């Protein structure tokens, strides 16, 4: 059975920066042997040769191409000029590639969601949709629950839920996989993973980039909807969910959904206590002097480029444990991590020796490196009967130094879609439940007229975000 990939918006930024490099890495690892064609469709009139050169240049910016892999890969690549919302474009694609109903067709929509509906219809009308067809879509999946439901309804009129692959590229990151292994394959963690033993959880996704060319789009969305609705809530789900009976798509998605539905809505009364909005001002990152968000944008704005939230999960496992989330642009460093802070010991038997145990801390770093670190207490190796405790770090990471090919999140997810595995893709119900919680925050921000605090570029966000934790007697890691 031949697999054909069709990338709509195939000469755009996402395709060039993420999709072709991911597909090329899969080719290098010989994972694409059953993929017969990779076709880019877009309206700009260009030749296949032109597309191949563009992709080759883009790939060569980061790596030295393997000539065999490139030659196999480029033979599969073709460019098809056409308006993907028209049946004619789809029909001519079908005829050109001689696609039969036995072939698998995977369509990636690397275009804005406003055209998802018409593209799906054109695919259907051209007779390209059958049980062997899959469609991959990417955020933004709406800007609130209502708009998401509309987008989904349009997709559903042509595709069933089993055929729709909603990407959240954070789920394709190596450490996210490792988090599941850590949680569900180690007895010591399964026992401790609950409110009785965990004091609080922090999830940080810090970026150094500003909004760059996306300022216009970003200004209508802001950090809450750009990052928290999807990436941070998905991470939170994986940290908080109950063990699924089997690690398959149906069970994992069902458990994540329960977490999303247990998120406590943030009331109007608590909105300014449990959330902090920030916007980057000028400053410096490394050696670069950078300008303020409003200068990037070209006008004043009340959109947040930073958000910190104290989230609560109302269920037996997590009641009383705050989940502090934060994300922002133009912060000091680019890193994403999950911090699990365990509770302090109930009794210190070394009090008479003047030393004390610090609580255990588990840190799961997603990027730039994929690492897991457990901090625990150890005795300082000194002679005599003096007892001094010290915190030591146990590094649980596997090294990927030996790996010949580095696969990124998109490569993993594309391969999963090729293998018909929806485990790391998001269900419609999850997206809906995330929007419901986020919509509540947006609504209360409006009613409360919640202030957007400026923060210096190169800092870790506005002081108020530190204040939020300080009020709870905690601090950001
Ligand atoms: C995207 C957001 O989903 O994720 C961007 O729209 C953000 O604003 C990006 O920069 C971050 O992804 P990564 O993998 O670079 O951390």
User: What percentage of amino acids are in beta strands?
Assistant: 15-25%
Q: CATH class of the largest domain, anyone?
A: Alpha Beta
Bound ligands, each once:
6-O-phosphono-beta-D-glucopyranose
Instruction: List the domain count as a whole number.
Output: 2
Residue runs with pLDDT of under 50 for 5 or more positions: none
How would you summarize the topology of this molecule?
Elements: E1 3-8, H1 13-28, E2 35-42, H2 48-62, H3 67-76, E3 77-81, H4 87-97, E4 104-109, H5 116-125, E5 133-138, H6 145-156, E6 164-167, H7 174-185, H8 187-192, E7 198-206, H9 215-219, H10 222-240, H11 249-262, H12 271-274, E8 275-285, E9 288-290, H13 293-297, E10 306-311, E11 323-328, E12 335-342, E13 361-367, E14 371-379, E15 389-395, H14 409-418, H15 428-448, E16 452-457, H16 463-470
Parallel strand pairs: 1-2, 1-4, 2-3, 4-5, 5-6, 7-11, 8-16
Antiparallel strand pairs: 7-12, 8-9, 8-10, 10-11, 12-13, 13-14, 14-15
Helix pairs in contact: 1-2, 1-3, 1-14, 4-5, 5-6, 6-15, 10-11, 10-15, 11-15
Bound molecules: 6-O-phosphono-beta-D-glucopyranose.
Quick summary:
The chain is of the alpha/beta class and 477 residues long. The chain has helices spanning 13-28, 48-62, 67-76, 87-97, 116-125, 145-156, 174-185, 187-192, 215-219, 222-240, 249-262, 271-274, 293-297, 409-418, 428-448, 463-470, and strands at residues 3-8, 35-42, 77-81, 104-109, 133-138, 164-167, 198-206, 275-285, 288-290, 306-311, 323-328, 335-342, 361-367, 371-379, 389-395, 452-457. The termini are far apart.
